[in-house]
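Minimal example, chain plus S-adenosylmethionine.
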Amino acid sequence: MEIEILSLFPEYFRGPFDVSMLRRARDAGFLEIRHTDIRDFAESKHGRVDDRPFGGGPGMVLQPGPVVRAIRSVRKERSRVIYLSPQGALLTAAKCQELSLSEHLILLCGHYEGIDERAIEMEVDEEISIGDYVLTSGCAPAIVLIDAMARFIPGVIGHPDAVSEDSFQEGIFDSPHYTRPENFEGKEVPSVLLGGNHAEIRKWRKAQAIEKTRRVRPDLFLGEHCEPLYVH
Ligand code: SAM
């Protein structure tokens, strides 16, 4: 998959894509991430890409010209243009899975008060939010989206079961995990996990996952009989 990140601060992304799984995914050719500086498409010689909002109000707005030109400079026939925005649909595991099938993603990061609405209307396919709060820019949301989506690209995570057993895949959380030592500061690993009875272990894990999901995220359940709401 090819990903183009359009932002005012390409240097923001130094680090997150250069370590661990995302680094390996890039080195193995599963993921190619490129950066475009929206400022390179400024109208003025001084690289100015923002201006005051028409109608008044605080802050500055990214002008449509530089944004539209930046998108068009990387757009391909099968591109999907996503604007990271608090006003978008909430990012979910199901959405990440769907995005992982894309060939070419263009991720547009907003800054300041946001982007001139006309640029969004003209070039953006969908707006995605990473949560009901406002960040200073779309850079962190772009990293979150790429990280969460890359896990669904076959081969990126070594063991395919690791993804299918993750939280939300069956509409509930993952079960709790334990490793050595068996006794840590007086707290024992649940005995069922040490017994080697795999049917019992599966049953226990599912019960734990259901109990915690119901307690912490009752909204994931349809009702009393713990039917998961988001079934894939
Ligand atoms: N005035 C805008 C509003 O209230 O909808 C917020 C602008 S925010 C300060 C600047 C940029 O950060 C946005 O254009 C967007 O790209 C990004 N951003 C902020 N919060 C976000 C969120 N929850 N999810 C995705 N992107 C977000």
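The beta strands are 2-7, 32-37, 50-51, 61-62, 79-90, 104-109, 126-129, 183-184, 187-188. The longest helix spans residues 198-216.
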